[in-house]
Amino acid sequence: MGINMKKKLRVFWGIMAMLGVCMVMYTAVCEKLPKKAGYAAALYVPVQAAARLADTVGLRTAGKREFEVEEQIMQIVYQLARRSIVKVVVKDAAGSGVVWNIEGGIVIASNRHLLMKDVTAEIVFGNGETAFADVIGYSKQYDIGFVRIPESAVTGSVLRDIYEVVPILYETSSEEARMAFASLFAGQRIMQVGAVTSQKTCNLSVGDVIGLKYMPLFQTDVLETACFSRAGMSGGGVFDAQGHFLGMISGGEVAEDAELREAQITYSIPPALIASEYAEIIRRER
């Protein structure tokens, strides 16, 4: 399939996602409007379907019938975000990855600590299909690595099921940049999506942005979120309520008395670092 067709498909699925958000918001608004004589608000999202979707993605429902606008939007965000997340399997380890680029094949961004275990990775897509990808490079400083699936190995069904992440390239290099980020994002609702090591479905959690924090382990400022993550979600993505990609999960803090290895605070690599490292790898390839 040619590059032009891929671009058209990306635009198509992006439009479909936005239509979904608009539909949900319209439904929520109509449900709140008074029903005057001669007018009726049609519920375009069946309550039963919304309930099933909420149960599937693990979101809390607001009452027996109606759903809060925020939660309806997050349901749509999940349906978009899950298309950007894959499972990455290397030897005896597995984690997650995000669909970073689909020009001339599919480039997956993941954690360096996972990809350094091998030079070939098996990628498992949300529709159950698999493909093998070669490592094309690692960051020398950060926990970032990339693999590429050759264009010849990309099937039409995979291409229809995936969606390239749309990152927000916020700056982290100065105190002014960190303060600007905090003023825009601190406290905002986010969703974290990653692969499940033993299943085909995605793991997800909903939480809030704390801010940016310098972590010596990562040698940079990372996105800090009050949102749990568990084994297998490393390499997955953090998405805001509009579906934008805010970071790649790379670690977190686990309570000392926790029975399960689930982090309550998660640290993620900012998209600007991923973009700069990918540009450097492509430059070296040329």
Describe this structure in words.
With 286 residues, this protein is an alpha+beta fold. It has seven helices and twelve strands. The strands form two sheets. It has a six-stranded antiparallel β-barrel. Strand 1 (85-90) and strand 2 form a beta hairpin. The two termini are 23 Å apart. Mean pLDDT is 78; it is low at 17-54 and 56-67.
Helix/strand-derived category reads alpha+beta
Indicate the overall shape.
globular
Could you give the distance between the termini?
23 Å
Helix content: 25-40%
Q: What Rg, in angstroms, do the CA atoms define? A: 19 Å
Number of strands: 12
Give the helix/strand layout:
Elements: H1 3-32, H2 47-57, H3 69-81, E1 85-90, E2 93-101, E3 106-110, H4 112-115, E4 120-124, E5 130-138, E6 145-149, H5 156-161, H6 175-185, E7 189-195, E8 202-215, E9 220-226, E10 237-240, E11 245-253, E12 265-269, H7 271-285
Helix pairs in contact: 1-3
Which short descriptors sum up this protein?
alpha+beta; six-stranded antiparallel β-barrel; 31% helix; 286 residues
Summarize the structure.
The protein has 286 residues and is an alpha+beta fold. 31% of the residues lie in helices and 30% in strands. It has helices spanning 3-32, 47-57, 69-81, 112-115, 156-161, 175-185, 271-285, and strands at residues 85-90, 93-101, 106-110, 120-124, 130-138, 145-149, 189-195, 202-215, 220-226, 237-240, 245-253, 265-269.
